[in-house]
Amino acid sequence: MSMLMEFKIVLLYGMGGIGKTTLAKAVYNKLVVHFRRRSFIPSVRETWGQSDGEAILKKTLHNDLRLSLPPNEIGKNIVRPVIDYEEKVLVVLDDVDHVQQIHALTTDRNVLYSGSRLIITSRDKLALSGGVLNESFEVPRLDIQKSLQLFSYHAFGRKGPPEAYMKLSKEIVELAGGLPLALEVFGSFLLDKRRMEEWNDALKKLKQTCPGRLHDILRISYDALDEKEKCIFLDMACFFVNGSMKREDVIDILRGCGFNAEITLTVLVSKSLIKIFDGDKIWMHDDSLRKMGREIVESENLEDPGLRSRLWDPKEVITVIRNNKGTRSIQGIALEFAKKVTSCEDAGAQSRGSTLIEKLKGAFGCKLELESNWDVKSLKPLSSLRLLRIDNIELQGNFTYMPTSIKWLQWRGCPLTNLPSELCFNVLDLANSKVTHLWNGRKSKMAEKLMFLNLSECHHLTSIPDLSEHQNLEKLNLRNCRSLLKLHNSVGELSSLVHLNLEGCVNLMELPTDVSGLKCLESLILINCSRLRELPSDVGYLTTLRELYADGTALDKLPDSIFRLDKLRILSLVDCRLLKRLPEAIGCLTSLEKLALTKTAVEELPNSIGCLVNLKKLELDFCESLTEVPTSIGTLTALESLYFGGQVFTELPSSIGSLSHLKVLSVHRCKRISMLPDSIGGLASLIMLNVEGMSFKELPNQIGCLNMLEQLSMLGCESLERLPESFGNMLNLTRLSLSRATITELPESIGMMERLNTLILEDCQQLKMLPASFGNLKSLCYLTMTNTAVEELREELGMLSSLKVCNMAKLSYSKKPTNSTVSTEVTTEKEQEMPKPVTVPKSFSHLSSLTDLNIQRWKISGKIPDELEQLKSIVTLKLAHNNMSHLPASLRGLRILKYLYLSHCKELKVIPPLPSGLIKLDVSSCTRLESICDLSDMEYLEDLNVAFCIKLRDIPGLQCLKSLKRLFMGGCELCFQAVKSRITKGTLRHLRDLSVPGGEIPSWFVKEVPYFTRTKVTKHRSIKAVVIGVVISLDQQLHDDYRDKLPAIVDIQAKIFRPTDSYPVYTNVLNLMGVPDTNEDQLYLCRYTEVTPLLLMLQEGDRVVIALKDTPRFNGLTLKKFGVHLIYEQDDQIGEGVDEEWLDESERSTSKRLADFLNSL
Length: 1161
What we know:
It is a single chain. The protein has 23 helices and 50 strands. By secondary structure, it is of the alpha/beta class. Among the domains are: 8-138, P-loop containing nucleotide triphosphate hydrolases (Rossmann fold), CATH 3.40.50; 144-209, Helicase, Ruva Protein, domain 3 (Orthogonal Bundle); 213-300, Winged helix-like DNA-binding domain superfamily/Winged helix DNA-binding domain (Arc Repressor Mutant, subunit A), CATH 1.10.10.10; 846-996, Ribonuclease Inhibitor (Leucine-rich repeat, LRR (right-handed beta-alpha superhelix)), CATH 3.80.10.10; 997-1136, no CATH class. The strands form 8 sheets. It has a 32-stranded mixed beta sheet that branches. A 5-stranded parallel beta sheet has the order 2-3-4-1-5, with helices on both faces. Helix 15 (314-322) links the parallel strand 8 and strand 9. The radius of gyration is 34 Å and the shape is globular. The relative contact order is 0.04.
């Protein structure tokens, strides 16, 4: 997979069970190393159908991408922050069934940052039509050979079947019809069967199914389960596999029901009926396995849902409850709402798309009160009910009618302030509820049974009652109970408690003074309890404690008794900024595997730290008071990861070389360390070394002894002048970053690194040449060496046979003076420093794997060689800011070329025929360009930039560009006059951005929108688009640092103001491509459709203002005129074949009026 520089949406489609999700995960795992921000969202179709599904999906995406989104904008728009970061993202949306889901989660592909990837899986390609996709691939069935291989892996644990089973295996494979899921499940079914009779019996059953019918094949595996396994499988198919349920949570619920869940889940995983991904999330194939499970339940009674064992369909649940049709057959019910809904109008406003409310409107009309208000008495007949999920539903009436058989109640969003004492459950989940206290008094029927209690996000909860009688309670989750001031002392007496989570209880000031009664506690989470100043003095008596997280607390010391925690494996004290010392007895924690002290005030580490014989991970990043590291650290023989980033000490202890098992060492931004110790060569197991931002001038020769090292990052080591010749001995190195180093050359030995995959030499401004051995890097796929002093494109570059992405762009060779008083002699002197003209070596034609080539600003002169057509894999070609006079006619042979950048090629006069598959063509500021090839066959061209090509006379075939979305012709007076009559209303209707020479905007535009409304009141028509027009000029007598660096004017903004706010709630930078090189006025028109952030953010009463940025980057930029026009439904929908000349101007479509306006210029 190439890392292309444009945003791309790819669809994988095919029938259920064909392997779409598996393939998407494989691609995701392969690309993930190239993206710092990434997200894999499973089961989009199912989650979208929930009452608040869209908000859930957006929040998941927001959390995964770790975006700084203002709280009031969460759930509205996920794209703008990505743009603000100017960072590419990788997103997989699994099981999408409507194009609206893509729009809602990504807003508009045209505004996502370059390099982003969106991968979508779907059963229905047609459902995602509408021009949002770049490419689509049908996932085919497996052929016989691959089917046999997959089946064998699951049936025998090997690549192929034993000879005795070959014939039977082939028969089974043929009957499976090439469906990966069927092969996987049936193979797992046969894994523990080694008698030939068992195989023949299985084959007989398989032959009785319809060939290739997946559900019949899967049913064989289900039928082989015992009764408890079947029960748990059906529970999971109906209630627990939506992609967000954690394995641990499911086990807790099933244990509450009396099942041995650990063993059963292991069985279901071994039989491939469920999967565990991301370490702890449970997943079941939606289209096949889950559907089969639900069909089994539905077949229990096809006519009467009340006689089935499980209900999850909202229509059926409401029918049963409303009509009192519940029976003792029902074991589980699930129904949830985002909030109470009382009218169709409210329901419609709650969420867009195919939500639960919209489904129910058609079934029950507009009166939906019964959906979120239930009488408890309606549950009384359900005497076998075990599982009940009723999120955001209001139960009314006498709670004594609640079935005593219920083991699990999930009632998130519960409106009650306290619970009736009659309730009794094993597992109780009241997250996001309004409870202020649980129940009145000490007595509660739940005392004897309650095992798991979840009160997370109960922001009104102020206290915990006496829990001394709850001796079966194993887990208590109070995460983000922000109003909780203290815990009842009885919490310290819960002898069965295993897990206590108090994360985010920001007002909690103390824990129970006596916690010695917590005989079974294994996990104590105190993260961000920011007012908690101390731990109980007897915390050392928590002899079963394995994990203690106290990050972000106000702890200033640890109790002396902590040495007794001999089973403690994780101690995390990150961001405890008052903690200055650790007790000397810390060395007694002999089971400790992870110690995290990042951003603490610790001044020294006790020598006893060397006694932590099982410590695997030590985090000391940004402990700014730590002045030295004890030599005893060298005795941590089990240590695998060591983080020292941002420290003030001046040297690393030489004993560090004794850490023979160390795999990760990070000493980034330790600027006072001037040399790595020679002993570093002793780190025989080291895989990753991060020394970014350090100030040493050279590396020790011993670094060449790191034979296992795979990643070495020296980003920002600005004092680094040379690399030792032994550097090339790191034969396993796959990734090397030397950005911003001051090295003048690379050692010849670098050619020995035959496994090197990624080399980053960005901004190495003293690097003047590459070694002759550079061509030996046969595994090099990604090469970045922007802004170096290398002046020659060496023939050896053509020997990099695996190279996929090559970015060797340079910045401008000279800066224009920042004001008009700077003498011209400076500029002349700078120009004399420009590198000599270079040529593209013919050896580049050997780079058959190359997909992205960027050699901008190399002053390439003459003619590009014809051999360039041999770059059969090239997708993105950037040759901008060069001096070549001719492009080869063979350029048309680059069949898969999508993006071609030729801007500022001042000697270029003619653009020869180009590949018909181009998506973007940029020839802006080619000031000698006179003609361009016929573009009429470029059906995919979306972006055409010819701005400031002042000699260009025409754009042949412009009227045929049906996919065109951006057309920039600013400063092209000759060209514009020739083509303006061909810019039809059809062209303008699809254009998003347009620039032309001109000093006027349409008279029917308004300067600002003083009060926005989504509909035209008199005609009930909704908003469809906004067109913004601006006229700018740029004074060429003034200069700045951006004219040669930025491809666009970035100082004109559209702002949205709310009636009560003095600051804008949203700011959008207009897409004004092309920086004027003339004083003449330029007109830009920008259209924003209903799925772009600008329109999505607009609310009733908002004001839209166009303005120049407060501190513009471009000196001399003037916003001369501006205006806005709102396009409502039907304003721009008059057909292409209709002659609008006979209509009054006010009745013409918006695009026709714009076409008439352009013709008048």
